[in-house]
Amino acid sequence: MKMHTKTIHISSVAIFAALLVACSGPQVRYGDAKAVETVNANYGSTDLQMIAEAMTRSLLQSKAISGSKDAPIVTLADVKNKTSEYIDTRVITDKIRTQLTKSGQVRFAVSVSEMQNQTDELKRQNQSGLYKSNTIAKTGNMQGAQYRIEGSIASIVKNTKDVKDVYYVFNLNLINNESGLLEWSDEKEIRKTATR
Amino acid sequence: MQLIQRTFLASIGLSLVCLAGCASKPPAAVPEQAIVGQVPADPPKNPIISAEALKADSKTIAVTDIYFKKEGKNLIFIEETRHKTNNNVISTITPKSIEVDADKADASALTGGPNSSAFPVKFTNLADPKATAPGTGPIITPVDPGSNSNSASNVETQSQKKSGYESKMEYGELRYLANPIRGLLIKSGYKVVQAKPSTVAPNQGDEYFDIVKRIKAGDFPDANYVLYGVLVEISVVDNIDDIPGTKSSSQQVVLDVTVDFNVVDTQSTQIIASFVASGEGKEVRIDGKDNAFKPSMAKLMKLAAVDLAEDVRKNLAAQNFITNNPGSAGYERNLKRRLDDDTSTLKVYK
């Protein structure tokens, strides 16, 4: 009887310990944001980084940017997503913009998607009557961009029972807003193959 | 005799010593004079400045107010009643005229014009001989003999009506556009003198723009040059456009003024510079249509006048009439000359 009771006690402790371990959830670790991500063949963080880096480097070497006396004013236009996946293309252009701005060789004007905030602010300052006139950011003095950046991302996906092959091509263009001339263009190709 | 000779030789020697002494004497010290607050003149760097030399050097210029010529039209309605008795003709004329804008008159005069309801008469130009030719001109209405004429006493009454418009030209000067231009010429080193105001004669014609006549009449005393401008067009445009990427719209009210300018040398009556300049006064209101925004015309006019002066400056500089921009070395140099020449300028010596 005594032996039986002891066995029950040990079993209870073991079960309790097992439950505690089970309830503690997944472990969280910080990883390297720039580490190569190969979870699956879908568009991922490494693709974003590769595209942004390649495009920024190429754009800074272009004649339109490197040959300009003053840092030209550029605005971001659309990057069209022509793939079957959901890709936030704005993240790509924002990353490129950040790197270009850091270089100091390019200045950016607000893009179309940021215009609502810009007009709201100008309206608030100019039309509310609340601000000192000599401190107001006046309407009509925004600077127009000389160039706009636009492009597209497309993909070709092929599947077999064991293999998935994805080919991405990211194309970016720099267009002179006044002349309409394409001043610079480059592309970045990425191939990813996943096997089971 | 020998004594005289020695005395003569001694006096010559003494004179020579005195002369030599005087020759080596240092010149009298000149008190150092420096003008406080003025920069020494820069050497000419711009070839235009050195070539044109000192075109602006203490030269004077008169700037007229901006001339304009405006077409006006009077609508005229004349009713004439004639009573003919044997050899006597008694005529009674009742003229009526309405002054209207020329464009409105045109619009109303032609059939189906937008103002035809306001001016329902088809008007003809009375000055045009074709328009008043037989068959197109006056409407002669013979009065009913039974009621208005007495055949027994051989009295004939005729009534005729004429309607049309007569053109008239209005000449004058705009008083508010030229001052910024005078200001820029003062900044550029010119002395700007006042011109006598021009007067409009009755039945004035285009000789109103004859600047040489005014120069000879002495309207610009002491001026080396006269800058005069004739208004080409002044217009106000009110546009509303959507702002892409937003829910807002922008209302833009723009006052545009275009003036034809000439600079004339008063001595030779040669045209020194000639150009067309324009100025723009713009008011932008975000979502202005939502609250029926009305811009300040006074503000627009000021902006347009300042912008016009800036365009005049660019054109005068392009034609080498002014040699510099405000703040440049040439500007400083011209300003210094002007200060030096002007006796009324306060100078401080140390």
Question: How would you portray this structure in words?
Answer:
The complex is a heterodimer of chains A (196) and B (350). Chain A has 196 residues and is α/β, with parallel strands linked by helices. Chain A has one domain: Rossmann fold (3-Layer(aba) Sandwich). Chain A has five helices and five strands. Chain A has helices at residues 2-23, 45-60, 63-66, 89-103, 115-127; strands spanning 73-81, 107-108, 147-159, 163-176, 182-195. In chain A, strands 2-1-3-4-5 form a five-stranded mixed β-sheet, with helices on one face. Chain B has two domains: 47-65 and 175-341, Double Stranded RNA Binding Domain, CATH 3.30.160; 71-169, no CATH class. Chain B is flat. In chain B, helix 5 crosses helix 7. Chain B has helices at 2-23, 47-52, 102-109, 145-148, 179-187, 211-216, 297-318, 329-341; strands at residues 60-63, 66-85, 88-101, 124-125, 139-142, 155-174, 191-193, 225-242, 249-265, 271-286. Chain B has eight helices and ten strands. In chain B, the strands form two sheets. In chain B, strands 7-1-8-9-10 form a five-stranded mixed β-sheet. Chain B is 26% helix and 34% strand. The interface between A and B is medium-sized, with 14 and 11 residues.
